[in-house]
Design a protein that fits this description.
The structure is a single chain. The protein is of the alpha+beta class. The chain is built from 28 helices and 28 strands. The strands form seven sheets. The protein has a seven-stranded mixed sheet with strand order 16-28-27-26-17-24-25, with helices on both faces. It has a six-stranded antiparallel sheet with strand order 18-23-22-21-20-19, covered by helices on one side. Strand 3 (about 85) and strand 4 form a beta hairpin. Helix 14 (about 270-300) runs parallel beside helix 28. Residues about 1-10, about 160-170 and about 405-410 have low confidence and may be disordered.
């Protein structure tokens, strides 16, 4: 009898929630539907990971033991799947369809407790991805996948890009819930028609039958279709905060309880029509939002929006091509400081690759001929020749840009975060106050109506949608004008900036049409030697001189060294050559002036390239438009342009020269400590630290691959003059969000005014709720376009 009673009370699997079979599995007084679920529980229990079950009840999925993973022992397949591999460390990204709740996130981020060979794991919940860094000497890829399978998270392994392959996929569970909710709503509406149009004597006899049918339809609507809202609300409360799903879960619960109460005690028809209609509308809104986010994600991951011109070698000649045109088999020429855009094999040169973009470790890794260099690596010495073995993945590079290793330490909080908590708490207080008032007046009917209508009419959907719709529309406008911002949060940071710091070389000056003269003498062979050295550098001055020398062939070199902001040196064709600032030269010379690029070959001073860079067109107008900002110029160059800068910038502008990278970083930190929100503009070569630390860092680029992971945005040099327009549009975007919030608040106040009086029927409130959401989305879209047109960006 005791066993039978236990079977009756424990009807579901402790791990996955499925119904228990007649022959069940049991351990630690827990019942399981299969050996797989029991095995997962044992693994979690042995590793002290049973908190997995605290975040959600029955969060697991059934374990399938039909996987055949022998193919994961094939080195060729491993090489195609792996993102990064060096010595004993590998990184791989899996698409895991079973990720569905907070328990999944918690468990997958604690994989290192299950196996010490797993260093770290990072989850992207929206894309259902997990990126795992592991020791491939201690755990093979096959064993890693088996470990994931054992805990119920079988990865869907494909040689295609997982994001691209599944970006168009539909959440089938959500679609099924929408279909069920639509079916239930239609039937409830049908049975509610007599109530809408008045009951005749014949119809009154069916009133109770229709009421019980509607209550029956309400059960799956509330507890199947609306289950996710309850799960989200309970999880948020467990974590001691209130999210935007909490009021919605309360609405569904109240409507169901009220319907059950009225039908069971024959007091009325209940609110099954409102309940099913509300759940259907909420799920449709959720589907629309999900599709919108997927569209935005897909658009920004796979559009070629990195303005990087990769240098390819075609018939021995260099030719820049767009990054998305790079194909398997192409030869790439990667200079010092440039990013490797695709997995490739080293064919020529000595590679010391900084993989901090991928791993967070800044120590350069030495690669020899024939070794693979992974996408995201940055060459730190001489230029190298690579052959592409994998196509460029825009989503992978986008993921690297958002890599947590490159997040600034500056505290960032968006508008939604600031108001969501107070909005939900305010709605609850008003709802309970209205209910208490009518209960005190001994009018329980109006108390129920007031409580239900207040929570429905003050639905937080507007809050959840207005910000992403507005900021995503702004990102689209920015993209079309050559201003590529990392994400929507960065747009809010842009709007808050009140201080602007400019680098000079490559930022205020143009990389095109510089006037170059040489004071000294170089033979034809010495010109080849100098060109062979400068060819390895991405610095604007090197590019100018190389263009002016216009040589047809180059020598190979050894011992290449480049000191940021100082110059470069190498051994070229058995000659030691130096090019750069006076302080780097190995000889004591007294040339006519300090400025320029000085050349020394075999300890003999050869002369100096004097480069008169052109100021970017429209620079004076740009500075005048930024007059409201506190402006600074920090240059690593000499002070030869000081007088010119004084005529361009206001008198209050701080202008500094001979600035080393750490000095620029210190300047940003000082301003932030004084309460300033700092925007930094640089070319990304010697100011990466300052760009990363600033509240909003912009890497300016013309036609070279100087992408900087620490920046918040990339700006094409030709559109620098539009910077004030971009700033104004970001500020206008925040204004649109605040106006939309004000409209929603006004709408809610009017709705609540009638709701608290108990005169607003809950079904009317349920209809008004999506109408307000559509109104706000329409307003944000039209307003953003209007402001974009006003700022001359469309």
């Amino acid at each position: 009898m005791e066993d039978q009673h236990q079977t009756a009370t424990k009807a579901i699997c402790y791990h996955c929630g499925e119904d228990l079979p007649k022959v069940k599995y049991q351990t630690n007084d827990k019942d399981f539907c299969c050996a797989g679920c029991m095995a997962v529980f044992k693994i979690l229990s042995e590793n002290n990971l049973c908190n997995y079950y605290v975040y959600n009840n029955t969060p697991g999925r059934q374990l399938k033991n039909d996987s055949h993973l022998e193919y994961l022992d094939d080195p060729q397949i491993i090489d195609q799947l792996i993102d990064y591999k060096h010595e004993n460390s590998s990184i791989i990204t899996f698409y895991i369809p079973a990720i569905h709740c907070s328990s999944c996130i918690w468990l997958l981020e604690h994989l290192y407790k299950i196996n010490a060979a797993i260093f770290s794991s990072r989850i992207d919940f929206l894309k259902k991805q997990v990126t795992i860094q592991f020791n491939h000497e201690e755990i093979s890829l096959k064993h890693l996948v088996e470990t994931l399978n054992q805990i119920g998270y079988e990865p869907l392994i494909s040689l295609q890009d997982v994001v691209k392959a599944h970006s168009s996929s539909v959440d089938k569970a959500l679609v099924l819930k929408i279909a069920v909710a639509g079916f239930l709503m239609g039937n409830v509406m049908l049975f509610s028609f007599p109530e809408y149009f008045g009951l005749s004597g014949l119809e009154k006899q069916f009133r109770y039958l229709f009421g019980w049918l509607n209550l029956t339809f309400s059960i799956p609507a509330a507890f199947y279709c609306g289950r996710d809202y309850f799960t989200s609300a309970i999880t948020s409360i467990k974590h001691k905060h209130i999210n935007l799903d909490t009021p919605l879960a309360l609405i569904i619960a109240v409507l169901f309880l009220r319907t059950a109460f009225e039908v069971i005690f024959a007091m009325g028809p209940g609110f099954a029509d409102t309940l099913t209609g509300l759940v259907f509308l909420l799920l449709m809104g959720k589907w629309l939002k999900q599709r919108t986010y997927h569209h935005i994600s897909f658009d920004r991951d796979y559009r070629s929006y990195f303005p990087i011109a990769v240098t390819t070698l075609q018939n021995g000649k260099e030719k820049p091509v767009p990054i998305n045109d790079v194909k398997i088999g192409d030869r790439l020429w990667i200079r010092n400081g440039e990013l490797v855009p695709a997995d490739a094999i080293l064919m020529k040169g000595e590679a010391w690759v900084d993989m901090s973009f991928v791993t967070g470790e800044s120590e350069p890794i030495h690669k020899v001929l024939g070794e693979i260099i992974y996408a995201g690596g940055r060459q730190t010495t001489e230029a190298i020749e690579l052959e592409v073995i994998k196509p460029v993945s825009q989503s992978y590079l986008t993921g690297l840009w958002n890599n947590e290793h490159y997040k600034s330490n500056v505290e960032k909080k968006n508008f939604n975060d600031s108001v969501a908590k107070y909005f939900s708490i305010g709605v609850f207080l008003i709802a309970f106050a209205a209910t208490g008032y009518w209960l005190f007046q001994q009018d329980s009917h109006k108390a129920w109506s007031a409580f239900t209508a207040v929570i429905i009419v003050a639905c937080p959907c507007v809050l959840a949608l207005s910000t992403p719709f507005t900021l995503s529309a702004i990102l689209s406008v920015f993209d079309k004008k050559g201003f590529y911002v990392k994400n929507t949060d960065a747009v809010e940071e842009l709007a808050k900036c009140n201080t602007v710091i400019f680098d000079k070389t490559g930022t205020l000056t143009s990389n095109e049409n510089a006037e170059i003269s040489f004071s000294g003498y170089l033979t034809n062979d010495e010109e080849l030697i100098v060109a062979s050295l400068l060819r390895n550098s991405t610095h604007p001055l090197s590019r100018h001189i190389l263009k002016a020398l216009n040589v047809e062939r180059y020598y190979s070199l050894n011992d290449y060294k480049e000191v940021t902001g100082k110059g470069l040196s190498a051994k070229v064709n058995h000659h030691i050559v130096y090019a750069g600032h006076l302080s780097m030269l190995p000889v004591t010379v007294k040339p006519a002036g300090e400025t320029g690029v000085h050349i020394v070959i075999d300890h003999t001073y050869k002369g100096c390239f004097n480069i008169k860079q052109q100021w970017r067109p429209g620079l004076r107008q740009l500075v005048s438009k930024l007059a409201k900002f506190e402006l600074q110029v920090l240059s690593g160059d000499t002070d030869k342009d000081h007088s010119m800068l004084k005529t361009i910038f206001p008198e209050t502008t701080t202008i500094g020269f001979h600035q080393r990278p750490h000095q620029k970083l210190d300047a940003v930190l000082r301003l932030q400590k004084s309460g300033k929100n700092v925007m930094m503009l640089g070319d990304g070569l010697n100011d990466a630290g300052a760009l990363k630390q600033s509240n909003f860092g912009i890497a300016l680029t013309d036609n070279i691959n100087n992408f900087t992971p620490g920046c918040d945005a990339i700006l094409q040099g030709s559109t620098l003059n539009l910077l004030p327009n971009f700033i104004r549009l970001s500020k206008d975007g925040l204004t649109v969000i605040k106006i939309s919030f004000a409209i929603a608040t006004a709408y809610n106040c009017i709705g609540i005014y009638y709701a608290v009086q108990g005169t607003l029927y809950p079904l009317v409130a349920a209809v008004l709720m999506p109408v307000s959401t559509v109104t706000i989305i329409l307003f944000t879209t039209l307003a953003t376009r209007w402001f974009a047109r006003k700022n001359k960006l469309i």
